[in-house]
Amino acid sequence: MSGASFQLSKDSFGKLVLTNAAGEVFEGVNPVRAFPIQSPDNCISLVTTDGREVAWIDVLADLPQAQQALIRTELEGREFMPEIQRIVTLTSFAMPCTWTVETDRGTTDFVLKGDEDIRRVGAKSLIITDNHGIQFLIRDMFSIDKNSRRILDRFL
């Protein structure tokens, strides 16, 4: 869908408002990624609070900059998945164990309860869920540094 098919703005409460080509106004719409790991900037649905889709975006970059910024800001506010850039240390290879990792949001520690908390997503991505349910992403396990890859290999 092109940017000419709808307009986006924010209301006084900071919620997204979509006005479609027919002039219908939908308040409080939320962007939802169809493929948040493999293709985060493609296939985005704009849905109402009751889950009804009111617009579809094939490629986010095809929208005007202002609309892209509104959608990205909304997504960042709702999605929290730090991306692991390096595994610094872990307390042991026995479960549970504490991992110290560097992410795109800083260095942190988390407890991994078991092997089942490391999940493959596609051919090269992993999602690691800590004992609090927070999910960490490794976008490409083959491009991560050698020491981190060695640690991952012990769990996969």
TrEMBL record:
Organism of origin: Undibacterium squillarum
Q: Which InterPro entries match?
A: DUF1854
Query: What domain of life does the native source organism fall in?
Result: Bacteria
Domain named DUF1854: which ranges? 26-155
This protein is called what?
DUF1854 domain-containing protein
